[in-house]
Queue: 2 jobs
Job 1
Amino acid sequence: MSTRLATGGRLLNKEKAVRFTFNGQQMRGFEGDTLASALLANDQMLVGRSFKYHRPRGIVAAGAEEPNALVNLGVEGKFEPNQRATTTELFEGLLATSQNHWPSLEFDVGVINAKLARFMPAGFYYKMFIHPRPLWKHLYEPFIRQAAGLGQAPKGRDADTYEHFHAFCDVLVIGGGIAGLLAARSAAQAGARVLILEQTAHWGGRAPVDSGGIDGKPVDKTVDELVSELSDMPNVTMRTRTMGAGVYDHGYVLGYERLTDHAPETDGPRHRLWRIRAGHIITATGAIERPLSFAGNDVPGVMLASAVRDYVVNYGVSPGDRTVIVTNNDDAYRTAIALKAAGLDVPVILDARVLPADSPLMAEAKAAGIRVMMGHGVAKVLGGKRVTGVAVCLQAGEGAVREEFACDAVAMSGGWSPVVHLWSHCGGKLLWDNDFAMFRPDVDKAPTGADGAAFVSPAGAANGHFGLTEIVGDAHAMGHAAARATGYEVTPKPAPDATSFEEAPLAPVWLMPQGAGAPLRSKAWLDYQNDVKVSDVQLAAQEGFESVEHAKRYTTLGMATDQGKLSNINGLAILSGALNQPIPQTGTTTFRPPYTPISMGAIAGEARGKVFQPVRRTPMHAWHDENGANWEPVGHWRRPYAYVRSGESVHDAVMRETKNVRENLGLLDASTLGKLIVKGPDAGKFLDLLYTNMMSTLKPGKCRYGLMCSENGFLIDDGVVARIDEETFLCHTTTGGAERIHQHIEEWLQTEWWDMQVYVANVTEQYAQIAVVGPNARKALEALGGMDVSAETLGFMEWADGTLGGFKVRVYRISFSGELSYEIAVKASEGQAFWDALMTVGDALAVMPYGTEALHILRAEKGFIMIGDETDGTVIPQDLGLHWALSKKKDDYLGKRAQERTHMTDPERWRLVGLETVDGSVLPDGAYAMADGANENGQRTMQGRVTSSYHSPNLNRGIAMGLVLHGPERMGEVVAFPGTDGTTYQAKIVSPVFYDPEGEKQNV
Amino acid sequence: MLILTCPYCGVTAEETEFHAGGEAHLKRFGPGSSDEDFETYLFMRENPKGVHFERWRHVYGCGKWFHAARCTTTLEVFGTYSAQVTEPPQEILDTISEKRPGWAWRDLA
């Protein structure tokens, strides 16, 4: 059984016990433990069930590469699934539960899948559940969803807060191991601003666990000295618990800082996303040990040799009294020596290699009394929920068992792979290194930045160096090079003097034993988290999935939350073997950020709730809110849809408001309408190109309704243009259109007609604008007192500056309702006061504020188009019968050439008409009109569609507008519109102007 | 995420401060042009692997449009320059020739 040792544990504070709960069971660890080390200390070898076969699984690794030990952490607002126990620091009161099992971790019914494993090969889901089709939705998918999935999705709202942080540095060092610290120091000594990130809570990486020394001192002493030296340098920023998550174009890097995961009671944000711009990046990300592929390599108790060493040295945890070592390299001997030193038994080291002579590490292990069997490997692991022993065979053979050893744990090492993820994210290329059987960064093919120069350098083990001497020398030099690359002068100092063991070369072992037959291969796991075995990858190759990217997706190898940190190299070696091609020819799959999963909260940062998308408010927003506004989002604005009185439905309110505008007086907050000033000697000429109408002939004091088209001919915006003076125009845009149209105008001004002397300013928010609409409109303004607003002085489509009720105003006599109407602009700061004044004088005139829906009905009664309803990006002015607004006198305007194309002049284009249901009901918005016959796809032929549809309280019937084939030529014809409710609506084609066709009401 | 320098205000900033505006140096064809010229102007675009000329706008800055000469494979930026020109300035062309001998883009080389 795994247990806590009496001695050892360099990261622990044994003075301070920490209590935590796993699957409801109270357990105890120490400050400094990870959840994984604490679980092992409590003999909790079994920590989860596998994804597909529900096999019992234990802790394999001691770091970010852990595939198995994923747990649910916390409860309610603090609940989070899929947290790696190996990177979760223990804290008082931690609550964890295991995942992917039912009904319990110890007894799981899903394990039946393992018995059926023979029937669930690679691509099983694709092969099995494809036919018959209807069963997918009702049977297969619900079943698979129930059985599959890691962890549970959180149900509550996240109780924590998160933040973003922008940082800039000359040299960013990712990884705070010995290589990272040394590289940071050499860069910083040259004067570079250095930021160094370490994903764990500790500096020094794994060098202190391994043997060797620097400048005659043990490595951990050197680490302490380096950390203290760096912390004293003003140009160095150091962050632990911060992972370099991704490297992006031009030196952009995301860092992921876990601020309070280890101390959840602390105030402040939980995670911080660092958005870093670095001049040069050093990836000192170390290396990850590879598992070996032998039968039963997933039984709890089979661990990476380096992880076993970490648990013994860092956490004082024994994985078991007897640990069998199986390896293809020298490094695992360090584990054997560490176990012996901790007083534990190593029954045998199974070394797959056959070597002419013992290396120093081998000799040391033998001197410690450990039996070494060269040329041997594991035939299979004995035991189910935990290791009970291993059966030993010749590596060169097919798995005939020569001897069995009883043991509690197996420490395996298949060699090391540099962590090349961050190097590769932005295009760094890899080389296959035959000596170490691994991919390493090709330093001549680094990611390049804005200036074309390399901006990433790997250092230390991440650069494929493993001896301490090589690591130290490489990191030291890379730090200097990075400083030089960012413009600092370097006075090179010699690298520190490191000592390390001479190691014998490894022998690549991708399958153990090399001649393993099908029964063994189907129990040899490559990807623990996604349950992919050697036999699955071989089957994929056999079935033709030869590209590594295809084989990955077919088998799901490397697609789990660990992204194949342990499995990728082994998997593609097996694939290469099956395809009988060298490994570099197979290549790797693409490394994508983030390195390990980062929280959604960190990505969102502060942008949640009210600040996710700030709302734009008019000066009268608060008044609307207090007076029953039912809000409608329009662009980033909120506009009142209607002002609902108590006892009234929204529909009732809309009807009341619409009628009142026609009968008495309505007030509309029109402040959201875009207002653009176009000014300059060439303003008129410029507007002639932007609008389809002629604007240069407009007289100061007058208004004109204008249309804007894109260069492709389609209608993009409309609004009233007022000429303020000879050189100044005020262009109104639609509510959502101000920014978009301003940009459109700027684009043409700056990039096509830059010789014109024109300036454009968006003054939308500088004014509050109120539409005073209805038969009593003039009376209301007269009651306010001030300027002359009579028909004689201020005619329809004219504007004037003046005062009303003491307010400085600009009054536009324009109408979007067909009623007598004044749109009055005041300074934004006076908007509310002016609104109040209008409400006061309006009291005797039956005033009511009205919202956007009444506005829509009023304009539809008059047949006025609305951008976004009658237009959808495929509609041209000609479709809407707006020929009168297309100047024939102008040689050119945006869209003119496009509208001459044959498709645009096609008489078969659907054109605008009014639609009146035969029974007075309301047509469904967006409904299509059917015609006879079908198109080439067998779909029913259509002949039109509804673009706007309302109940008109003034006409007391449904009214609609629509685009219909040959529409204007078919007045009086009845067309069928099927609804989505099964009924078919019969509607008569009529003029789109339903109300006051002569326009008498607005022109009084 | 790219870094670009706005040639108007001189600010070097993150891509999120800018907005890409498609291919640069298009010649406008208006009323009276042939269908083919108009189609080419409106729809036909270069899709080079390598040297490219693009329009960008410093949308969260000075608001100005400008041009950028860039490599679409390595994302190297050869330079940015005024939008009020019909072809790239000679010094930009020289820089590209130095860094990408034998390059070609439309009728430039």
Job 2
Amino acid sequence: MQKEAAIREPLILGNKTYHDVTEDVCRPIEGKAPKMWYILFAIALIVGLYGVGSILYLLGTGIGVWGLNKTIGWAWDITNFVWWVGIGHAGTLISAVLLLFRQKWRMAINRSAEAMTIFAVFMAGTFPLIHMGRLWVGYWVLPLPNHFGSLWVNFNSPLLWDVFAISTYLSVSLVFWYIGLIPDFATIRDRAKKPVAKRMYTILSFGWSGRAKHWTRFELVSLVLAGLATPLVFSVHSIVSFDFATSVIPGWHTTIFPPYFVAGAVFSGFAMVQTLLLVMRKAMNLEAYIHTKHVEYMNIVIMVTGSIVGTAYITELFISWYSGVEYEAYAFLNRATGPYWWAYWSMMTCNVISPQLMWIRKLRRSLLFTFFISIVVNIGMWFERYVIIVTSIHRDYIPAAWSMHYPSHIDIAVYIGTIGLFFVFFLLFARYFPVLALNEVKTILKGSGQSYKESPDYHKHH
Amino acid sequence: MEVTKKYWKGIEELNQTPEFKQLRDSEFPNQHAVEQFLVDDQLAESSSGRRDFLKFLGFSVAAATLAACEAPVTKVVPYVNKPEDVTPGVATWYASTYYDGLSYASILVKTREARPIFIKGNKDFGFTKGGTNPQIIASVLGLYDSERLNGVRAKGIDENISVDKADKAIVTALKAAKDIVVLSPTIISPSMNTAIAALEAAYAINGTSKVKRVQYDGISYGAIRKANEQNFGAAIIPSYDFSKAKTIVSVGADFLSTWLLSNEYAVQYGVNRVPGKGMSKHFQFESIMSITGSNADGRAQIKPSESANVLAYILKSIGGSTFVSSALSGESKKVADAAIAALKSSRNESLVVCGANNEAEQLLTNAINNQLKAYGTTIDLSNDVKLYQSNDKEASQLFDAIISGKGPDVLINLGANPVYTAANGEKLRKGLEGLTMYVSTARYADESSSVASYIIPDHHLLEGWNDFMPKAAHYAVAQPTIRTLGDTYAALESMLVWAGSAARNGKDSTVAYDAIKASASILGFPDFAMLTHNSCGAVNAPASAYTYKAVSSSATTKSGDWEVVFYQKTAIRDGAMSSNPWLQELPDPISKVTWDNYITMNPVQMEKMGFVTTYDQEHGLNMASVTVNGQKLTLPVYPQPGQAFNTVGIALGYGRGANGEAIGRGAYQTKEYGGYDLNEQGNRKAIGLNVFPFVSQVNALPAYSATAAIAKVDGEYLIAATQIHHTVMGRDSIVRETTLSTFLKGDKESFNPAHKLQRLNEHGHHEEAPLEEFDLWNAHPIEKVGHRWGMTIDLTSCIGCGSCLVACQAENNVPVVGKDEVRRGREMHWLRIDRYYASAEESSVGKKANKDDFSYSEAEIAAVNPAVVHMPLMCQHCNHAPCETVCPVAATTHSNEGLNQMTYNRCIGTRYCANNCPYKVRRFNWFNYPSYKKFTEVNPAQDDLGRMVLNPDVTVRTRGVMEKCSFCVQRIQSTKLTAKKEARPVIDGELATACSEACPTNAIVVGDWNDDRSAVKASSSDHRAYQALEEVGVKPNVWYKVKVRN
């Protein structure tokens, strides 16, 4: 067992025993759901279904039900796609990268962060599908043997790279998440009394018996998967950024995009984790496991990635002027002072100024402030994508083709609908899945638990 | 004899073991597997069991479901007897002639499987020399309008009646009548004149005919005829020849687009607009910004009442004596002085024209031309124009009589529409309703003919025989290109039948044909087959000598604080073709607005008066009321740079069918989710507002300008424009412009500098290198390998008329999307014409006045009287196309002939290609235009009759796919095929795209760039050639040529 300096804040507060951990995590699954859960679920479901209905209308009628036009071929659709993919970055980063760096605090949050990741990637994946003019032939993006002669996909297209990047990321994340869940499912299985639940959790726990051999293999697989997932964290958003970076459109054609997009993704992903966990720890009585220290750690990540993003924005702005390229310079001038100035300055305020407040210890340890900033950051990150996509193409090379973009109500409905669906999934997860990696948390209980740290024998060996 | 070798599958076969035999015999089991599957052994004895029942049920449901899946029915009717000249898949062209009362042209009509689908100008025969205009090209769609009358109508009866019944009633009425009036638009058909003469002879009392003729056109050019009558003693309109003019001065005449025979003039104008020593100089004085004005070398904004002063000033300066004030100041004086200098140097190689329908101003114009000795060089009085003979005085007397109930006993209307075009149209309609016998030959139950006792609808122009004498020395015929679609009757035949000199014979009637053949023979064309082959020929005009006699008049246009100009738009003109959706959706070449008319006003003045001066898809224009002679109208106010201060312009030709008349499918407003928008009376709402009632008679002539009062009115109106940004923002690689003097110096770098990029050389120093040396990719092997199709577009000759755009739409089955979609920025035109105004920040369009102090926000605002450049833009067929690399499914690829190809069937609709196109020329099918309910009323492809206009060589695109200019690849393929069949290479000039063919000024040249002797190669290699956005490095196959202003 690992010992930790006493000066470090404990990661598990209160006088928790191993049994308490099990109890705390299993209670919501075994007990009855509170009324609030049903209300939230109903709201999320209604919003989600409204979105599904709008998507069906879109598919039945045509892309024209959105507010796009001859100049602006992408707007909310790809904005939402990139936004959701970005959000879907935190989970894997937390569980894979932090695992490799042996950051123990991740254990309290990795389960729900990963769940969030997977649901966010689901939502993200929706948009490239429904933005296609002919979804029914969308499978042509897969390099499948076919009877159309020797038609093959175009490996030059970043959109094709997206297909591979997103699907790989989704499958690896899903497997990683599931592997982590197996011991916890087994715990629930062992405690389950109702036959249906018992049967379900038996299937889910994949024959886990808790033997030492299982644990060794479990650790090994986790490590291997973490190794696999880590490059994916960086590749997915880099590839998403290639959609823009490899184009010829001023404002898109930027070599800074891959790192800038990855930093932005981590930034928005952590913000989303904060938003969700700050509510969840209260609602599910997990204050002992997810507390100020965790929030502070995450705020530091937000602050660092936010600063990277801010630097990228300013670099972009400087380079556009320094390049001396007419179109490039105008694209950025137009962002800041053109018809979409409000979107640009919303982005700047939300993404550059707000994370800098985290330098103040009091603020980054304030849960209420964190919750507020986490929402601000995600608004800002949505605007970032909108600014990149729409303000670049609405005024590009040929002024006669310049146009404006106004969203239709279907644009809005589809976006809001994915948020609804996301919460439907997340609420189901919170109700039926162990929201904390309970078996993993147990491993740090004696090293980092408050009661142990404060007990007189804790320092004996040191 | 050889023995066939025998092989065994194994030792078992050789030995013929019993096991082998058994296996061999049971390879095809004798039992029927299906029976075994479906029934058990005791079927005969027992009733079917539950399992069997389910099996049968399942099978029958599946079978019934499959049987119910009906394949779509496609109607293919084979020929019983194959008609001559009709080979499926091969086009047949007919030489013919177009005349609709406004435009005249010698044309070629393309028919496929016996349906006319395309019209182009005839470059080989006729004085129009291939010149057409958007209306002529689009007229083919009117043939397939399902609201066109398809049978004889009688008042009060909702269905077609037999023509004999109508004829009997008409002839009875003619016999009984005391007076008969034949009202018509200008008739230039000698045969029709003969027929009217026959009618006059047939209905006479004591040698005096009861028949009176009145010619009435919606647009009058009476002042020119009247002025010539005074100066030369003959009420004629002379032939103008702009190709002989080195200096052209136009005072308010939009001679390139709507004035007189503008399609003829556009061709002539193009001849001298080639940069070089002989390039003509063109000055324009006008109130609105017209197409002609946008092409002028010098342009001054004047109020309509100032045209007389401008003319007088010019006349006085070149030594004439003037009878009106010649006071002039400011900008107009400066332009006038420049014009005078040019006129003085070109003398008789000059032409001055005036657009005002005002006698005094036309007299001044004649005096100037006489002073310049232009008669005999640029103006030909002897070969006078026979069009536009409207007798406005007689017509208004007739209308007044009809209104007061004293109308003729019988009125025969050969297609005039005075209820719509006359000032007192509404009253006239009530008067016409009261006539005892009113016969019309209109093609639609329009404003004037819907109240007729009988409508014997005339054929469409493409369906029947016609003959024309457009000028004194020119005779032309029009031949049918399709058997009549409906039960229609040539007006010529009807007249002859009513005169008692012919009998009907249904669709096989040869009455009109015989009459025209006879006329042709009299005019000196005994070989009628040759005449129809050429479509026209020269006749001897009666010799006449005209001598100029000075006449003065002071009745010039009255001035007011505000003056309004009623102008014609290229697409809609007098409104006769306003049901044509191609024309409604043709962006106005200047304002780029579709589907509406509006008040044009100078934005500088609008800002002072509190009107908004910008607009987009969700932000409309403010409304204003214009009061003329106590009548008031309310329309949106459009910011029009170049409009003279204190003047407004309103287009004629809108608001047709406002009282529920059926004037054509495309003529009405539609709703956001499809269907016509109806007014309180349940009638379909008209598009725009009719301003003909505001055209008042001044000195017995309709005056197309008037004094007015303007006031701002509450309300916002969404306008559908295809361009919402109007300046080029000082960017110098999109349009390039220079002056003739700079160009003549021959230093390419001074007017068309090559792009250079900086790079580091081997010593680490910066150096400039030409663009060709920078490339991301390896070059395609394009030079000298097979064909490489290319195009050059000369911005100097392009006048922005819009003919290419309509031709492209007709050729390539481009869908019409309606006002709401155009407003949303989703028009589908493959070819668009970008129009740029210079801003105050630019010394010429695209050239920054001061590089270091350039305000982008100021550059967005057009100058008060801006220079204008028209730039046709379509797919540039880039050799390094950015669209091709980004398509995930390789739906857009490069051909080995340099074309950027779009494979519709492969497209999945990600729109990435459109985003990555620097020219923004790709068009996405946002909806299923051929079937979605929103487009039922506007898109011809949704109408059973309308879709007959579709070009069978071009796919109709489904929803969700991208489309764009293909360089008319179907024409390229057929050109190559013809050459191949004839075992020869493709000859330069053999290939023409729809746009290049339609261009009246030959601004567009296409051809094989790999052919060293081709015109396109030469054109793309000269000093003026550049490529738009060349520095992006996409290597287009389209070159533009620097605009040169004289």
